[in-house]
Design brief:
transmembrane helix, Receptor ligand binding region domain-containing protein, single chain, membrane, Peripla_BP_I, globular
Length: 87
Amino acid sequence: MCSGGLFHPDDDHQEIAFRYAVEKINLDRTILPRSKLLAQIEKISPQDSFLASKRVCHLLRIGVAAIFGPQSPHTASHVQSICDTME
């Protein structure tokens, strides 16, 4: 099972937390006993909503189960709109 993370270049702490959460889930076999969680990380600029949209479409094409981020309100609104459409 793959989860996507959209992070801005300065979001190092958020990316580390995301990777850590994936690792902790995989180490605790009671959470997802028959699955392994994978992290697909994409870096985007906080001002580039077009690139953010392209990255979201890529993540959806490869079948991610969830998308976390981005933090910027400018790009987050575009990501949210695409995800809402795909629900």
